[in-house]
Amino acid sequence: MKTIEQLLESKKIRVTAMRLLIYKFLAKKEVAVTLSDIENAFEKADRTTLYRTVKTFEEKAIVHQIDDGTGITKYALCEKGCNCEIETDLHLHFHCNNCNETICLTDHKIPQIKVPDGFVSENVNLVVKGICDKCSV
């Protein structure tokens, strides 16, 4: 099992205290988070540093962006072995209309979608909306 430091280094990301803290924060979450969630967790940190860290993590396939239809972008850690390729790594997301949480359903893969010739896929996002298991009880 790789340490966080080894993971970051393997992705050619310089290891800093803030990057380690943000990674650990994301790893503890069972739901996708917004930049505001990260800002609230690290109130004393520079907002630009937080934003750049999340963007670096996204560019290096450590986190992926989720558009759950709420108008607020959310982020979640990529699963082990993920490289965020449209052809191989797409999975379902679930957005709860009650608690407003969005979770990755990584065991539920989205089949590859062939687009017509001349079209180029850049992003695919499938979100199921409903009531999560915590709210449906």
UniProtKB/TrEMBL annotation:
InterPro entries reported for this sequence: FUR, Fur_C, WH-like_DNA-bd_sf, WH_DNA-bd_sf
Protein's organism: Polaribacter ponticola
Alphabetic keyword roster: DNA-binding, Repressor, Transcription, Transcription regulation, Zinc
Similarity remark: Belongs to the Fur family.
Protein name per UniProt: Transcriptional repressor
PANTHER family: HYDROGEN PEROXIDE SENSITIVE REPRESSOR, ZINC UPTAKE REGULATION PROTEIN
